[in-house]
Amino acid sequence: MTTLPPEPSEPGGPVTAAGPPHLQRQVAEGFGADAGRYDRARPTYPADLVARIVAASPGRDVVDVGCGTGISSRLFQAAGCRVLGVEPDPRMAEQARQGGTEVEVAKFEDWDPAGRSFDTVIAAQAWHWVDLVAGAAKAAAALRPGGRLAVFWNAFNPPLELREAFGAVYQRALPDSPLAGFWSRPAVDTYRAGGGRAADGMRQAGGFGEPEEWLADWARPYTRDEWLDLVPTLGGWGQFPGPAQAEILAGLGASVDAAGGAFTMGYTTLAVTAVRLAP
After folding, report:
1. Predicted confidence (pLDDT) per residue in 216-273, tens digit
2. What phi and psi, each to the nearest 5 degrees, are found at residue 144?
3. Helix, strand or coil, per DSSP, at residue 260
4. 20 to 30 Å CA-CA from 38: which of 20, 99, 222, 228?
5. Rounded to the nearest 5°, which phi and psi values hold at 16?
6. Which of 204, 168, 201 is nearest to 183 (CA)?
7. What is the distance, to the nearest Å, from the Cα of residue 215 to the centroid of all Cα atoms in its chain?
8. 87: which strand partners?
């Protein structure tokens, strides 16, 4: 385990000209446009990380923040937890309900626990869409003493030749976008910077012990078609012009074809976690 240093910048994840992610609602609310594809194509999360979070929590009552279509919720249910999802997009919430997750529709910062308390608050690939201080304060209010806040993200780590090829595709299609630069280095570096901001939000909110960083490495094979099914579920896709979308999919497909038609994506799942202190 690693203790994270304080993050001096403003909390809220990577900041763009449009502001921190939690203010970019047109992007955050774009995932529900094809909730079925999101549920089908998005990667899972490593079982050993789920088990570690459950083992380090005092009980099995879990709130899943920004639960989306229920990908993470189902993993914690399979581990024996009672999971309540909180999701701002009704389309994603309905998809999660179809998969067996109870969901309340709300932005987490505005959600009302209604006197309920929980053992664990998780957020899978979603915490950067939450105001990091207000969200941590809401989690602290919902958690029992000794409960745990655990927020985590999957970071891509494709083979080097594909990372370079993917970056070149985005550079051609969207020369002014930072996405080409994203593929120029391991994504975990970017997520660790965002994790530092998440940790700082927990510190500012108060009520938590010192945040820690947990890492889990795993891998998943992709065919060409499976990878191209996932790409349109990535944040911001709906904001790209149609011709750029077509060029990106064609270029990524050609890159995977050149690599033999399939590849293994390495993933590092990065978690930032802290314990709710007793009042």
Report:
1. 999 999 999 999 999 999 988 988 999 999 999 999 999 999 999 999 999 999 999 9
2. -70, 155
3. coil
4. 20
5. -115, -175
6. 168
7. 14
8. 105
